[in-house]
Amino acid sequence: MITFTNDVISLLRKSYPEKMPSIVLMGHSLGGAIAVNIASTAESDLPIIGLVVIDVVEGSAMESLASMQSFLRSRPKSFKSLTDAISWGMGNGHIKNEESARVSIPGQIKNVATGKLGTDEFEEPMIDTPVLTEAISEPQYSIDSIREDEEFGAPSISNQKSLGNYTWRIDLCKTEKHWPGWFQGLSKKFLSIHAQKLLLLANIDRMDKDLTVGQMQGKFEMQVLTRVGHAVQEDDPEKVASILSNFLVRNKFANPTGDFVRILPGC
């Protein structure tokens, strides 16, 4: 986390060597944890005026780490095509929005032969409906409801096959030793930040004790979206954009246009 934080701070200072503009940090999941850590570490040195965190809460994040390896092992190791990868992302509930899946999934995989990212080869194939291909015969479940290996037994045969045309860009299993450090102390850091704060969640159950108390004390704005998964901004980008624009306008970080639609703030 220290490396992530220092990298972003260095990038900001490199981009604005003379006068840095006011900054609103925003991040999703691990990106949200990084944004919190940046604001907590450098709020006194950087002109951070706002912080938006999307669907990451210390309590639920720490609880999910115990089953993260099982979740990663349940994913197919490879895909025959980019279309198969996108279909898998939609078919297992990872992403509910087809347009978003077309944008985000190719960047997560690479061509086995060339090493190039899927985004370099993507040509917008038509996907009528999510099709569960041969690569995804494993049980379908989300990271929030994942079950341990004892219940499922050994990984499925499809996961043990030789690599197809595309495989994952990053082996997340190798980062396991860093996982706790990404989220420990996140809630207290978030609440201690003086900038205006917005927390977007996919489910109210994700709230932990510290955030629940802080929210009741009015220390941050919270919005809970419906019919979305963990990839909140991908499943309902229009709603997220509306919430963000209202957050910016309400706190006078931006000026509205003539056709701007105001919505009431959340809890």
Summary?
This protein is of the alpha/beta class and 267 residues long.
Walk me through the structure.
The structure is a single chain. The protein has 267 residues and is an alpha/beta fold. The chain has a domain at 1-6 and 20-115 and 168-251: Rossmann fold. Helix content is 38%, strand content 12%. The protein has twelve helices and seven strands. The chain has helices at 2-15, 30-42, 58-65, 68-74, 82-91, 98-104, 149-152, 179-183, 186-192, 209-216, 232-235, 237-250, and strands spanning 23-28, 48-54, 78-79, 109-111, 166-168, 196-201, 221-224. The strands form two sheets. Strands 1-2-6-7 form a four-stranded parallel beta sheet, with helices on both faces. A three-stranded antiparallel beta sheet has the order 3-5-4. α10 links the parallel β6 (196-201) and β7 (221-224). The radius of gyration is 20 Å and the shape is globular. The model is unreliable at 125-162 (pLDDT under 50).
Helix-strand layout with pairing:
Layout: H1 2-15, E1 23-28, H2 30-42, E2 48-54, H3 58-65, H4 68-74, E3 78-79, H5 82-91, H6 98-104, E4 109-111, H7 149-152, E5 166-168, H8 179-183, H9 186-192, E6 196-201, H10 209-216, E7 221-224, H11 232-235, H12 237-250
Parallel strand pairs: 1-2, 2-6, 6-7
Antiparallel strand pairs: 3-5, 4-5
Helix pairs in contact: 1-2, 2-9
